[in-house]
Amino acid sequence: MVGAISKLDRDNATGLTADDWASALDWWREAGVDVLVDDGVRDWFAAPPAPIAVTAATVAATAASAPAALPATLEAFAAWRLGADAPEAAWSGVSLAASGPAYAKIMVLVDCPDREDGDAGALLSGTTGRLFDRMLAAIGLSRETVHVAAVCARRPAAGRMPREIEARLGEVARHHIGLVAPERLLLLGDATARAVLGMDRQAAKGDLRAFNHDSGTTGAGTTGVVASLHPRLLIERPAMKAESWRDLQLLVKDWKQ
């Protein structure tokens, strides 16, 4: 507004200066004028509306609509993750539990179960699972030494993590990581990286990123995180295995088993 007035003043379009216009606006503002045009007639002398009373019922309703606190122990969390209060409990299909040692030094997180996983009743099964096992073996690990879990415990109808629930599922996944408190974490897939790190794998790749947590059995700590490719993508695009191999080497670099 002032910039436009200054231009008018420079062009001598009016006899008023920018200071004159600013003074007038200040006067109207102090008088209570907050809009130039209103659709309806306003009673400037009407009493202000009464404040909304906060009652016990209001507080209870607000608390009921807010997500409940996540379980504080891994055992309780594992039961809750498969129960009726989990974010995806209303989806069709079955929820798949995490596998491997509860407090493993290395944790692997995928986005959601594949179709084969649902049939087998375990994450990373079938053809994808066999490739995953070879990937672990290449860096001296196995299913018996890593904690494997999914951001979505159930497979979404479209096979991809729904964006509208991604934030809540990410919160749940980060809580899970904190309870396990691994030394290293391998994130497989773009959606998994977004849920945990808040960025796509492409933006996170190539670095050992720090994930700080304070809910594990060991107290506050830091987990080294590597964002990599999901085995299902490697099956579709074998040429990307070289990139995956670099990520696996980064995962165990300077790490003692």
From TrEMBL:
<keyword id="KW-0479">Metal-binding</keyword>
<dbReference type="InterPro" id="IPR051536">
    <property type="entry name" value="UDG_Type-4/5"/>
</dbReference>
<keyword id="KW-0227">DNA damage</keyword>
<keyword id="KW-0408">Iron</keyword>
<keyword id="KW-0411">Iron-sulfur</keyword>
<feature type="domain" description="Uracil-DNA glycosylase-like">
    <location>
        <begin position="97"/>
        <end position="249"/>
    </location>
</feature>
<dbReference type="InterPro" id="IPR005122">
    <property type="entry name" value="Uracil-DNA_glycosylase-like"/>
</dbReference>
<dbReference type="Pfam" id="PF03167">
    <property type="entry name" value="UDG"/>
</dbReference>
<dbReference type="InterPro" id="IPR036895">
    <property type="entry name" value="Uracil-DNA_glycosylase-like_sf"/>
</dbReference>
<protein>
    <recommendedName>
        <fullName>Uracil-DNA glycosylase-like domain-containing protein</fullName>
    </recommendedName>
</protein>
<keyword id="KW-0378">Hydrolase</keyword>
<keyword id="KW-0234">DNA repair</keyword>
<keyword id="KW-0004">4Fe-4S</keyword>
